[in-house]
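Moderator note: this is an archived Q&A kept for reference. The question asked for a predicted structure of one protein chain; the sequence and the answer are reproduced below.
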Amino acid sequence: MRAVHVIAALSVALSACSIRPTPTGLGRATDTYAISMRIRCEARIALSAMAIGELRRLGFADIARRLEAGELTFAQINRSRLPAAVRARFDRYDGTTIGYSFNFNMSESENATASVGVLFPLVRAPVVLGAAATGNLERQNVRAFRVIDTWERLLTTPRMDERCREYGDSAVNAVYPITGQIGMLEQLKLFFDLTESGNLVSSDSLIPTLIDTVQFTTKISGSINGGVQLARLGNSAQFASASGSADASRSDIHKVTIAIALPPENAPLDRTIAEQQIVRDLSRQEELQALAGLRR
């Protein structure tokens, strides 16, 4: 019976391999939607801090204080009451577009072996016959999608207020970094500083663009080994020994490419101009990364 228990335990371990690996189960709130919302909400929080800092710097400390205290939202600000220069400064960045290209490459592997020995007593000497079984499972899933936001929508859409109350409190996750804060404030602040200096341009158009590609790789593995050896109890055939081993591993390669583009100042505030630029830039980055992968 102990031999049967060993084999059964290995079978259960092997059957744990997912049919289709997904981000779910890697930690708190790690489904695909939650991951994308955490990054978008991190961007929203960063933009809010930047805008509040700019209002305070321009002499609107009371508005900044009320925004920080939650007494006022960005959607409630009456821009017509702001000086024209201040209003124009904020209007310039309303159509700034952020594009996120997510790529999740998840794979699982599980292997198990089990063997048993059966003792057959004979007249001259006992004979032990053995049997062994091996099972190997591998699963892989690649999931990719894109999301596009504008700075104005991130800050003023009521639904983002609601969703970011749920997903906007993430901390850094050392094991699966993409499920926590990834440093959006630094990229957004850099984009703002570069556009303010007047030096940021795109490689193939007049639309200033900044692109970051961040990749996180996490590998986890484990193994178990076990066996039993039974003493001879009588003259009939019986289980003499049983042994087995099982190992499992999971590899997650999570990648997000984030592109930020500022629409032309003299063009109508039609977000599709910046969005088209974002799509082109993200596609170009994905093509370059695919070519780099083929050369390895």
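Archived answer notes: DSSP finds eight helices and four strands in the chain.
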